[in-house]
Amino acid sequence: MFDFTPLIRPYFNRRASIMKHDALNADIAQQKTLGFLLNKGRKTAYGERYGFDSIKNADDYRRHVPVITYPDIRDYVLRMVNGERDILWPGLTARFAQSSGTSDGKSKYIPLTPDSLNLTHYRGAADSVAAYLDLYRDSRLFSGRSFILGGSFGNTLDTPHPGVKVGDLSAHLIDKINPAANLVRVPSKSTALLEDWHEKLPRLVKEAADNNITNISGVPSWFLTVLKEIIRYKGATTIHDVWPNLEVFFHGGIAFGPYREEYDMITDGNHMRYLETYNASEGFFAVQDKIDSHALLLLMDVVIYYEFVPLDHIDDPFPPSLTASEVMPGQIYGLVISSCNGLWRYMIGDTVRVESVNPLRITIAGRTKSFINAFGEELMVFNADAAIRKTCEATGATVVNYTAAPVYTHGGSKGHHQWLVEFGHRPDDLDAFADILDRQLTVENSDYQAKRSGNIFLDRLELTEATPGQFERWLASTGKLGGQRKIPRLSNDRQVIDALLQLR
Fold first, then answer.
1. CA–CA separation, 463 and 435 (whole Å)
2. Strands of 415-481, DSSP E
3. 25, 45, 223, 391 - which has most CB atoms within 10 Å?
4. Burial code of 193-212, b = ≥16 C-beta within 10 A, e = fewer?
5. Pairwise CA distance, residues 319 & 308, whole Å
């Protein structure tokens, strides 16, 4: 295939220049963004409620509009899903990204307005390509095809309004992508949007295996399974035996560190590069812009207004938030966004550590609440509590304490969750308890359900029975026994559970 990179590079050079300029002038860029958002939102139901017409600057915005989470706007969003106009953003919103993670329902539905798709998600994706080409002048990125994994429009809504589409963010992005991009992308749209992974995986393998793939984009856990299947299908040793021109993996969604060893085993390290992105259903926030740094450049050109909340004020409705030009290096903050999808002072649930200012670079520090998201499952404590309660009801067991953590993919094994459980009344059959608990988690959390589908990406949980008093001994060892008797229910690493297991 002809290398179009030299012809396309000037466009991305301009994007890189804009990205760098706005990052170095964050205060001006953010003022313009806030002004644009408030002007667009002033005639919406939300804007009229909080008097956007009277808000002139960041201080006014902080005083008049509360910081919120999804349950605070769920009713507004459902009005949009049901076809009402001018609710959180002007006009009719016909697309919603489904995601797990709220305490008042199985799923949340993030509005995807035409503005948010074009000015945030697609522009952020372009910025990631621009950052990569700026770092690697020898790239031949457009001498072959992109392999992009997509989700589906399967959703938990029974009767969305006619014309409304609800599904994974990636499904919407592929569905609305510029038709020209389909000429240099695999798989086909029909394959990319399939919901059944038993049908989808072999089609992905066949459509991608014989193409000249130069770059891949997606979530590390999902792509690892697909790449291993392609290697097996072609009888190869590494993915570079199949795609000798593969040069970069644009990855995001979950931490890449636990998967790096697995990727090193199936790639040629002399020809493989990795570029991290920070994107979610709510927006495209940051991209890696240095080769030897895990810090991500916060994007100021994607129509997102950022605020940073000190951790001791996370739960305040009107916290003393800081703007992008006010944060301090080395500090960790809760990230709050306002964007052209109609999210106003929205706490996305992530904490970020400021690595540098001017330009503002961050790393993702964690979540504001306990969770597991090692494989894209976004399992929250309220999901786990509900699942274990219902499992106890079904088995007659009682649980004194529990904690859970990921077991990462290694060798031929799949990733899964390990649950350490101390029973008050032990179930008759531990395997049956584990089976029911696993099924209940799929009921409580749609993302866990998707990752467990067909045992393709995530195996059934592993249940380990704790000895009596094991959690008490761990609490005593940490100095927390007594006044602060808090067991971390879910952890995104194994630090807590490994320490507990040593006390058996």
1. 9
2. 416-425, 462-465
3. 391
4. bbbebeebbeebbeebbebe
5. 9
Q: Using the 8-state DSSP alphabet, how is residue 389 labeled?
A: H
Distances (CA, A) of 352 to 235, 275, 411: 42, 18, 32
Per-residue pLDDT of the chain (504 residues; tens, 9 = 90+): 799 999 999 999 999 999 999 999 999 999 999 999 999 999 999 999 999 999 999 999 999 999 999 999 999 999 999 999 999 999 999 999 988 655 444 579 999 999 999 999 999 999 999 999 999 999 999 999 999 988 888 777 766 678 899 999 999 999 999 888 888 899 999 999 998 888 999 999 999 999 999 999 998 888 998 999 999 999 999 999 999 999 999 999 878 887 888 899 999 999 999 999 999 999 999 999 999 898 999 999 999 999 999 988 998 999 999 999 999 999 999 999 999 999 999 999 999 999 999 999 999 987 777 789 899 888 888 889 899 999 999 999 999 889 999 999 877 778 999 999 999 899 999 999 999 999 999 999 988 999 998 888 899 999 999 999 899 898 878 754 444 456 889 998 899 999 999 997
* Other Cβ atoms closer than 10 A to 288: 23
Three-state DSSP class for residue 251: strand
State the Cα–Cα distance between residues 205 and 432, nearest whole angstrom: 35
* 67, 73, 76, 80: CA torsion to nearest 10: 100
- Tally Cβ neighbours within 10 Å of residue 82: 12
| 461 contacts 402 by C-beta, under 8 angstroms | no
- Token pair listed for 174: 């592929």
Given a contact cutoff of 8 angstroms between Cβ atoms, the answer to whether 365 and 331 are in contact is no
- CA 433/CA 395 separation, integer angstroms: 7
Smallest Cα–Cα separation from 209: which of 182, 228, 184? 228
Q: Are 451 and 377 in contact (CB under 8 A)?
A: yes
DSSP state of 105: B
Q: How many helices (H) and strands (E) in the chain?
A: 18, 19
Residues in the chain: 504
Kindly calculate the radius of gyration of the chain based on its CA atoms and give it in whole angstroms: 23
Helices (H), ranges, 283-406: 381-395
